[in-house]
Amino acid sequence: MTDDRLHKALEFANYRQTFFNQKQILKNKSEALLSYSTQGGTFKVTQELIAFAGTFVQQGYEEIVLLDVNENPIKIDDLKSFLTEITSRYFEVTNDYHKQYSEMQTKRRTAKLVEPA
Amino acid sequence: MSQGIVFFAHNNTEIDYGSVAIANATMIKHHMGVDAITLITDEGTMRHMNNTWDKSIIDSTFEKIKVNPRRRVENNKRYRDTRHTVNLLPFYNINRSTVYTESPYDETLVIDVDYLICNDTLNAVWNHKEDLLINKQSKDLLAGRHDYNFDRVDDFGIDFYWATAFYFKKSQQSKIFFDLLESIKSNYLYFKTLYGITSYNFRNDHAFSIAVHMFNGFAKSGLVKHLPVDFLQHTLDYDELHDITSKGSLSFLLEKTSEPGKFIPARTDGVNVHVMNKYSIVRQSKKIVEMYSA
Q1: Is any Cβ of chain A less than 8 angstroms from the Cβ of B146?
Q2: In chain B, which residues have their Cβ closer than 8 Å to the Cβ of A72?
């Protein structure tokens, strides 16, 4: 292998490491933002929570007791508005994650990956 | 119920914690929209702040400043400015347990000045059902790098909790917790031996970890709950906060695990980061204040 090839391989390894790291930063950021607090409780906004709340909204329930991340029972007084809030939080965060990840994929140089938007 | 944030800042011969506190407070005001920020400090740090910053900046940054006498204590810590510089310097951190009585707020969020706030997720603590919230997990900003010293206080010891950011509500329960913390601090040699802690200096994270363990009924029971976002994020003192490119956007140089002394770049947008290289925050503090004041 010539020096040039080795140099290119090392450069690419650097790029891959930076790419992977930036992806992890985005993933952790999304995880942190997918948290919703109401009435003294905190909920992790997941597809399951949205589907669960949605099921009971469809059945006409107006209030419900849910276990939060600390397994405390939290009474949700307005289930419909809770569902709207968590759904909008979910799409806001995942759409932002998608946008930033897609932008990252178009960047082919290490320096570009960490350039300010 | 009054709500607010409390900072502790005590300079040593090299680290200007006062400037870091001002910088982080301006970030908090912008990102969290919280103006109720109290600084607990000492005369020397206050004098240096007055010499370094305009009075108008200091006054507009903090709602209250409490200047307490500084006790003479022997507690030194290694401060690194990447792998290239290391200094053993005094570390004044013995007054954290007094926050229960010192805080002017009914609900208090205590944040280390080096935990740079770039989003509003911590606002979710206000009006929480729990009296005390503290995290035991912190993720390294460099993927794949993991320091096992941050999992437990000792290889066979209790879980490690981060005193970097915690929330409490004034109540009978939290008073007992902070009294216990005070007692642990006063008898630290005994407790650190009991819990197998081998580091020679006093560390709030360790004192809090012991207190949480005792509060949990001497078990891993999870009675003490975590903050709404159950993990912090950090960079090590081998890394560098390289630049602040815009509000909430931090650029870092993170030391490669495979090549000590060499770095990969990283950038965060809207992420709270506990920056352990204090030197690098001090270097950026003026820029932060100017940027956020503009």
Answers
A1: no
A2: 129-130
CA distance B39 to B270: 24
For residue A39, the tally of other CB atoms under 10 A from its CB is: 15
- pLDDT tens per residue, range B15-45: 999 999 999 999 999 999 999 999 999 999 9
What is the distance between the terminal CA atoms of chain B, rounded to a whole angstrom?
A: 32
Q: How far is CA B232 from the centre of its chain?
A: 11
Q: Do B266 and A25 touch (CB under 8 A)?
A: yes
Q: Give the CA radius of gyration of chain B.
A: 18
Which residues in chain B are contacts of A74 at CB distance < 8 A?
129
In sequence order, which residues have a C-beta less than 8 Å from that of residue A52 and are 6 or more positions away?
Answer: none
Q: What is the pLDDT of residue A7?
A: 85
The secondary structure of A41-92 as a DSSP string is EEEE--HHHHHHHHHHHHTT---EEEE-TT--EEEES-HHHHHHHHHHHHHH
> Would you tell me the crossing angle of helices A79-105 and A47-58 to the nearest 10 degrees?
150
Whether B124 and A37 have beta carbons less than 8 Å apart is answered as yes
- Its sign, for the CA torsion A25, B159, B74, B68, is positive
Most distant CA atoms of chain B, gap in Å: 51
**What does residue A38 show for φ and ψ, rounded to 5 degrees?**
-155, 145
Which pLDDT value is given to residue B221? 81
CB B240 within 8 A of CB B265: no
Model confidence pLDDT, tens digit, residues B67-93:
999 888 888 899 999 999 999 998 888
Secondary structure element (H or E) that encloses residue B246, with its range: strand B240-246
Closest CA relative to residue B81, chosen from B216, B235, B288, B259? B235
The 8-class DSSP code of residue B150 comes to G
